[in-house]
Each structure stands twice: as C-alpha cells, then as structure tokens.
Inverse folding.
C-alpha cells in the first residue's frame, strides 16, 4: 500500500500526467531555475564590477555601525550588514540593501543616477524615493545620526515609507 500524497491520492497512476511526466517536469523546472540563478549571478557580478560602487565595512556593535561620511555624492555598500550608504544633495542616507517589493538586492545604476531592482526593475532616486516599477514605496531607511566624521547607522531601526512616515522622512544626516 502506498502513502497518500499531498492531494490525497494514493496512486500516481491515476494522475492524468502520469508519474513519469510529473517527475520529468519537476526535474526540468529545477534545472532551468538553477541555470537561470547561476546566469543571473554571473550577470550581477559582471555588472557590479563595472559600476563605480564602493564597498564599506562598518565598525561597532550590532545596533550601531559607524561608517565614514562620504566626501562626495555616491554610494557605498556594506554587503555584510546589507546596508547602502548614499550621499546625495548634501544629505547622507542609509538604506536596506533589499528592494521593498520582493526583497531582491538592489543595484546602483551610476549612468542613470538611481537604484534599480534587477528582478522587476523598480527604480529609486538616490534619496530612496520611489520612481517607477512594481514596488509601492521608497527604499527602507535606517535611523542615522552624525558623530564627528562618522555616520552612525542603527541597524535595529529600519523605517518603511508607508508605515513609519515621520521617521522615514527625517532618516538622513544633513551636511
């Protein structure tokens, strides 16, 4: 006697596709997904290497990380903490690295002066304001403060534009 599957059937032979067809489709889909993921990773790596993005490492504990305040407009990324530091129009912001739509790592498009999600192409200004795409809000901002020449980022305080409106609007350091 065979065990019942998720659909309650005890015999795969009753499936209109048949057991061999289901197994082939599953394996084909799994291989295609893995191939696409590897290809996308290669594209991301080649694209990221061509962009003028700096990588940073913060210092300090889990709650507060210290980053050097950028001296010019641009973007720094701390992959280990999933933080983007952006200087734009005499303000410094700290964003979560993930697109708020489906949590995909964002890219900085230097030629367009914007962030973009590679998954569904949502676009954001350097200050995190949503421009277009499937997302419905701006980039999530961390609470920040200035301490001398350091930007202190509170990794435990991440504000969503549509949920913590007041906090999101003031989550930057004026230079």
């Amino acid at each position: 006697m065979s065990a019942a599957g998720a659909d309650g059937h005890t015999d795969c032979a009753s499936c209109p596709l048949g057991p061999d067809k289901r197994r082939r489709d599953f394996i084909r889909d799994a291989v295609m997904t893995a191939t696409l993921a590897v290809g996308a990773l290669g594209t991301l790596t080649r694209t990221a290497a061509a962009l003028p993005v700096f990588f940073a490492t913060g210092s300090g504990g889990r709650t507060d990380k210290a980053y050097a305040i950028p001296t010019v407009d641009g973007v720094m990324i701390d992959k280990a903490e999933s933080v983007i530091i952006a200087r734009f129009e005499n303000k410094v912001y700290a964003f979560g690295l993930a697109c708020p739509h489906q949590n995909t790592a964002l890219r900085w498009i230097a030629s367009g002066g914007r962030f973009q999600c590679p998954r569904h192409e949502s676009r954001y200004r350097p200050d995190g304001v949503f421009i277009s795409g499937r997302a419905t809000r701006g980039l999530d901002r961390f609470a920040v403060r200035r301490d001398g020449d350091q930007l202190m980022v509170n990794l435990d305080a991440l504000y969503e534009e549509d949920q913590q409106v007041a906090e999101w609007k003031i989550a930057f350091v004026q230079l």
Notes: Residues 33 and 107 are 22 Å apart (CA to CA). Confidence is low (pLDDT under 50) at residues 34-55. The longest helix spans residues 18-50.
